[in-house]
Write a structure and sequence with these properties.
Elements lengths: L1 E3 L7 H8 L7 E9 L7 H10 L2 E10 L11 H24 L10 H10 L1 H4 L7 E2 L9 H5 L5 E3 L3 E3 L8 H5 L5 E2 L13 H8 L1
Parallel strand pairs: 1-2, 2-3
Antiparallel strand pairs: 4-7, 5-6
Length: 203
């Protein structure tokens, strides 16, 4: 299972996916997460949920990757260094999995204290207000509609962000006209993959 860290945990759609997994009888599973900062409530709760469904957790690791948030000045050299460093750790983790030496690293106390709050729907329902639209730039191309994994975008005469939004930044990062933004539109967009590749994966 691979997923990004957000708000010290991960997105509700990830937890919904895990909750929807079928029951198992000792099926081995490993997990990895990418993040720019830190995680408090991801791998611990994930292991517990998987164990309750009958899965055998064989290893999990979190990797530092470039941030897609609050980028005032994009630094390609710094980004490349982060990616190279992360890939080296990924290879080590893969080797540990193959050799049976991988571990499931988690915080022993934090998940139990903060997970219910960070997973709360009330917390995530505040995110639509973070995404803003410049109607003068929007061409109604509907790319944001295709990219949104949460089905949070409606497009009639203009773009509307609903309370399903989880602030994943796909729409903001890949809007060809940069009509969608957050804060005061002073931050640069980070596009590590092409929009069409994301759509293919999502489909």
């Amino acid at each position: 299972l691979g997923f990004p860290i957000a708000a010290f945990t991960t997105y509700p759609l990830v937890w919904d996916f895990v909750s929807g997994l079928p029951q198992a009888q000792g099926t081995p599973v490993f997990a990895f997460a990418t993040m720019a900062g830190m995680s408090l409530c991801a791998l611990g709760p994930l292991k517990r949920m998987l164990s309750n469904k009958g899965y055998r957790s064989v290893g999990a690791k979190q990797f530092i990757m470039p941030s897609n948030l609050w980028i005032k000045k994009y630094n390609p050299r710094k980004t490349e260094k982060q990616i190279v460093k992360a890939l080296a750790k990924v290879r080590r983790f893969a080797n540990d999995l193959a050799d049976g030496r991988a571990k499931w690293v988690k915080f022993p106390l934090m998940p139990d204290l903060f997970f219910p709050l960070l997973r709360s729907r009330h917390v995530w329902r505040s995110t639509p207000g973070y995404v803003k639209l410049n109607p003068g730039k929007c061409t109604n191309c509907a790319l944001c509609l295709e990219l949104c994994p949460a089905g949070a975008i409606q497009l009639n005469s203009d773009v509307r962000i609903t309370d399903k939004c989880q602030f994943c930044l796909r729409c903001i990062s890949h809007c060809p006209q940069e009509a969608l933004y957050y804060s005061k539109d002073q931050y640069q967009r980070y596009r590590p993959v092409k929009a069409e590749d994301l759509i293919t994966i999502y489909d």
